Amino acid sequence: MHLQKMDKNKHDSFKVSELIYEADAETFDFFFGNKRNASEKLWRLVGVGDNHLGYQQIYLVTNDDQEIVGIMVYSSGEKIGKINELKVIFGNFNFLDSLRFIMIEIIDSLFLSKLNEDDFYYAIVAVDENSRGQGIGSFILEGGIKLARKMGCRRAVLDVDIENEGALRLYERFGFRKFKEKSISLLGWKKGAFNMEYLL
C-alpha cells in the first residue's frame, strides 16, 4: 500500500468522489437523490480545489496496481475561509445545488469537533468497499499521524457517527478517545457523532 497526495491530473477524481460519497451516503442521498448525482457534484468540488473537499486536501491509498483503495481528506492549521468556500460553491453550481451544499455544512457544524489552530483533522477516512478488512483504515490513520507530527500539530481529531460501531472500534483500537458526544433527536429520529482525539 502507498499513501500519496492526490494529483488531479494523474488520479481518478471520480473514484475519489465516490469514496467521499460513501463516507456520508445517507446525507448526500437526502440532498442529491442518489449516488451518481451526488458523486458528480462531489467530483466537481474535488477537481476545482480550493475548498474543504478539494484535491489539495486529499491523500490517497493505492495498491501495487495503482488502484485507489482508500482516501483521507484532512485539514490542519490555516483553514480555507468561508468566503472562499462560498465563492467556489456558487461559482461551480446552480443556486439550488449551492444551497444544498450550504445546508450540509450547517448540519455538519452541529456535530463536528471544534478545532484548534494546531489540530490535524481527519475530515474523511474512507476505504473502498471491496478492499475492507486489509488494514487500510489503520494505514490511513498512521499516515495522518505522521503527517500531523511533521506539521507540528498537537492533536489529531476526527468525528464518527454514533451508529458506526466498526469505525468506532477501529479508532479506539488505534488510540483515539472520545472527548464529546453531540446528538439531536426529533420524533424518533436521531443523528449524532462522537468527537475523538489522539494527543501527539
UniProtKB/TrEMBL annotation:
Protein's UniProt keywords contain rRNA-binding: no
InterPro entries associated with the record: Acyl_CoA_acyltransferase (IPR016181), GNAT_dom (IPR000182), YpeA/RimI_acetyltransf (IPR050680)
One Pfam family matching this protein: Acetyltransf_1
Domain N-acetyltransferase: 1-200
Keywords: Acyltransferase, Transferase
GO molecular function: acyltransferase activity, transferring groups other than amino-acyl groups
Protein name: GNAT family N-acetyltransferase
SUPFAM superfamilies noted in UniProt: Acyl-CoA N-acyltransferases (Nat)
PROSITE patterns found in the cross-reference section: GNAT
